[in-house]
Amino acid sequence: MSDTAHAIGVPGLPVIRHLYVHVPFCPRICPYCSFFVVPADRRRSRPFVDAVLAELRTRTDSCQLQLETIYLGGGTPSALTTEDLERLIAGIMAHCSCAPREFTIEANPTTLSREKAQMLRRAGVNRVSLGAQSFDPAVLTVLGRQHAPDRIRATWQIVREAGFDNLGLDLIFGVPGQGRASWLTTLREAVELKPEHLSAYSLTFEEDTPFFEKLQFGELAKNAEDDEWMFRTTGEVLAEAGLHRYEISNFAREGFASRHNSAYWRGSDFLGIGPGAVSTVSGRRWRNSEDLGHYMSWVENREPAHSEEEHLDAATLAKERWIFGIRTSEGVAGSEADPAFAPLREAGLAVHRDGRWILTDEGLLRADAVAVWLM
Ligand code: SF4
Question: Which member of 149, 198, 200, 289 lies 3.0 to 4.6 Å from 307 by CB, making a disulfide possible if both were Cys?
Answer without folding.
Answer: 289
